[in-house]
Amino acid sequence: MEKETARIEAFSDGVFSIAITLLILEIKIPAAGSGELSVQLLRQWPSYFAFVFSFAFIGIMWINHHRLFTHIKRSNNALLFLNLLLLLGVTAVPFPTAVLAQHLGQSDQRVAAILYHGTYFVIAVFFNLLWRYANRHLLGDDVDSAATDKISAKYAVGPVLYLACIALAWVNVPLSLLLNVALAVFFALPLHRALRVANK
Q1: What is d(CA 148, CA 127) in angstroms, rounded to the nearest whole number?
Q2: The whole model's pTM is what?
Q3: What is the pLDDT of residues 125-134, one digit of tens each?
């Protein structure tokens, strides 16, 4: 029997794969005759950085989405709309990535970093809304309440720490990006390891 959420997961996988692929379009091929090719390629380092950064983040979001749907057994209209909100955030990622790549190391890098972190803040809120609704209404009968409580605890820290990234960007952009990387590592970890880190 096909899982009730199979179409949601298939559609979501498609959106994640398109969003992650669009990131590479911001890395431009230097025009012939615009200068020494090696120099032109090196000058695009912010684009390489932003691409790898966001590729990893979208990949980690996809992993977490998959993890959530191993627990979510049913669907309804509310879940469909909440999942679409999450995918709205995912599809937006290439835009702040391009802005960050263009302005990293420039005078407007603070605004670019705030936009970048703000996008992940919104996505973290959408992740929480999706999970908390599903946790309350749509989990299977064999639900492990201890495990779901741990998932809720893990996701609850996301919006708060992304707000911290935004605040930190006002003071130090590289440090705010480093905190964002640490958050990505945290959410990439399996649940038991992530909670062990959070409780240290």
Answers
A1: 14
A2: 0.87
A3: 999 999 999 9
